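This week, study the protein below.
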Amino acid sequence: MTDVIVTEALTKRFGRVTAVDGVDLAVPEGVRFGLLGPNGSGKTTLVRMLLGLVHPTSGSVRLLDRPMPRGAKAVLPRVGALVEGPAAWPHLSGRANLRLLDAAGPGARRRDRRERVEEALRQVGLAGVDRRPVKAYSLGMRQRLGIAAALLRRPDLLLLDEPTNGLDPRGITEMRELLVELNAAGTTVVLSSHLLSEVEALCTRVGVMDGGRLVLTEDLDALRAPTGRVLVRSPEPDAVVGLLDGRVVDRDGDALVVRGDDPAELNARLVAAGIAVTGLTAQRRSLEQVVLEATGAGSDRVDGGRG
């Protein structure tokens, strides 16, 4: 499988501050990749270096098999991006903004511009937008417009920084469905976010940043593999403890955590012993647990207190 993003020892320093520290990242073609980390972990700086908006202090970037920023002219027409919020001319309508953004971008194609603008507006739920200036838009509408701008060129790669900012719950669901649809059609999707639920619901692979370093990269399914423990619910907890003798590692009312990696076998044993079972679930680590372990429970608090 081809990697659409490759960085080697990528580093960015601002004076004495190291924002990105020796990052080696590979993002395979066709995945939905989530870049996670607390605020200030270096996610946005990394994305900006991928796009050639910030030059690295050291290290290298390849995007769609071209070096960046040297290959920007060839690469950027194939990349859609939303970084640090949508940009727009506030006195113009959303439709006029998209036409101007498309005309100003590298590799502009005037021939089908109107069609592509209307398709992008439809994709993000702004097909019925009127001639109101963008300054009259809600925050959610502005965010939708920014994502529409990223989709104008029907990109091979989407790079989105906090794409659901300002969207209501319905809008978040719609955006997630759109990104899954685009990915199924062949677009590689990379998003950075500090929202674990957003990444867990959408992404197939994740990277975790902490203090400028990439501390973890793995497929989401592998991170959330079974823990070897099963949560059992029974109105007869004492009978469960008696039967399983030592396999019960925790108990809270009718809920018991039992060592074992085969829920079906465990259920069959309990039922054969005449013990009622109302619930049986193989335990998995949550993405929150994975990130906290990888980042050492970092926080953006400044008072020294515990989160």
